[in-house]
Amino acid sequence: MPSSSDSPLYTMEPSNKACDTCYRAKLKCVGREAPPCARCVASGHECTFDGRRKSKITQVEERVGALEAELESMRAHMGVLARQVDALGAPKETSPTYPQPAYAPLAISAPTPSTHAARPPRKRRRSVTSSSVDDDPLADIAAGAPLERMLASPLIKYMRLSAESSRTHASTEADDPVAAGLVTPSHGQALLDAFYAHCHTPLPVFDPATDTWAGLRRSPFALTAAIMVGALFAREPALHARLRAHAEHLAKETLFAGDGVELVQGLLVLTAWGGGWRTGGHQLRLAMEMGLYRCLPHLVRTGMGAGATGTGGLEAERPLVVGARVWLAVCKAEYEMAFNQGRPLLIGEESSVALARRLLDHPLSTREDSRLVAACELLAGRQRSHLAWSGTPGVSLEAAAAEIAADNAFFDAWHADWMAYYDAVGVPHRHYLRDLLHSGKNHSILLVNARLLSGIGADAESLAPERRAALLRCVRAASVLVRMATGDTSYRDYFLSMNSMTHVAMAFAARLLIRFAGLVPDAVDLRQTGRDIEALARVLKRGPGGGPLAAQIQDVLRRARRRRVLPPRSRAASPKRAVSPEAEPESHVQGEPTPESQVQVELEPAAEGLGAQGFDFGDFAFPADLFGGCEDDTNIFQWLGGDGGDWVSPV
Fold it and tell me: Which of 49, 289, 559, 643 has a 20 to 30 Å separation from 461 between CA atoms?
């Protein structure tokens, strides 16, 4: 029989150890020298000594091995902590800091353009000796501080912030698009210039005066996102694909680490020209974590730069202006994704939107900031009806018509207010910013009033008066939108610079116009409508990636002509229009809608309303059900694919 030194598991001699039954019961084995023992005889068990037993040496070896594994784990954790301590004093590229929630001290620093030069190490001092008695939780409650702030001592908070700062994504040389071999400095500068030339006005999240090529080198992610879009308009598809892959790789690294307003700016660009719903949600959370929603209220409280003296005083407020601008862009994107996807609005009634107009009073604001302010005001005005329709499955016709009438009045007042503002600041009449007002108003009218048209059939003459008025407003709005994209206006050139979802929105307006031609042909210039839609397809072909969308529009147009919804292609003059053109040529250029008083078509009043069942807006939660009984089953929203892409409206 092997000894304990030969094998850790062995069979004991009966005279030396207890029997198997007594061993398992941990009792003294009486009479083991002459088996069976007394206990086995009394209990009737078989007295055996065949059980395998572990020796004490084996148990000691296992315990020592477990201790060694635990020590190795502790050594690894200590190494991580040592690297974190070293990182606190290491040179680091800094980004502007923004006002944190009211319970935290306000830190304002100017952005420093990156030169990739080494800086002397700076030691950050933090007071960790203050007593928890000095922290008044009542003051924290009044300031709206989170519960974790009230429960954590200053030392715990310091340790948490230190750990978070160590996880912050530090840009490496490999992240830079130049160092990665994607572009040369001169080529990258040209792509950034193309981005500013095409995309700055539609989405003014950067300031070309400060966010130059050298300045954006401090943030490889924001720079890569910008030149990615520049490559799209420079017609370099292969480079665009490589830059997009690199930008998406950097974006993934910001999910659990990273801060800085440049990350939010890059996510905004990536969402608009290459991302979707998920990246939009990430940018919202990141902006909230940075406290960007506090920037504009802080500027309002401090007088919008009125107390700043000299250039240095104003430059100290530049991070706040940038933060306010980026937060408005985040709000705009969130409104659009919620409205156009029929999903809940995550930001609710954001108070910064009510103060947005004050941003234009700051000396460091730009003219393009009015684009974000105007869009946020328009989208915030649609929030009430969005909440009412998305949460109420059975709304009466009277209540729905009253809500839409209030929205129409708001759209008119918003448009007139901003036109007066641009008159006051000297914006030219044919400027693109004015065209954005026209497109935003008409697009909102089209979407809001179309909610009353669900389920209408071929007999439009039997419509209720409220639905008839909504139909005529939709006809005018869709006609204006298609005319703006194809007419000789400044908007047509900038329209090609908008993202692909804006092109989808314009194509959707063209699709609705064909549908309206089948419903009320007397209210539509049929021959001119066919020409305008053909021109829209040609315009879309000129844009990057607009070929498939143009082919879809042409397919719908061919089917409409084949089914005699629209007349065949002809050079003959159009018949007399039921909707009168604008009186002033400039209004036609700007895309002004035809006044309702000039509509000549009169439809027969409805014989009866919608009945006692009420008006159901539930089908509008899914854009594929926008119109029942269409003459063809092609729906412009379905061109987005099956991934639930984010339709960004041309507001």
Answer: 559
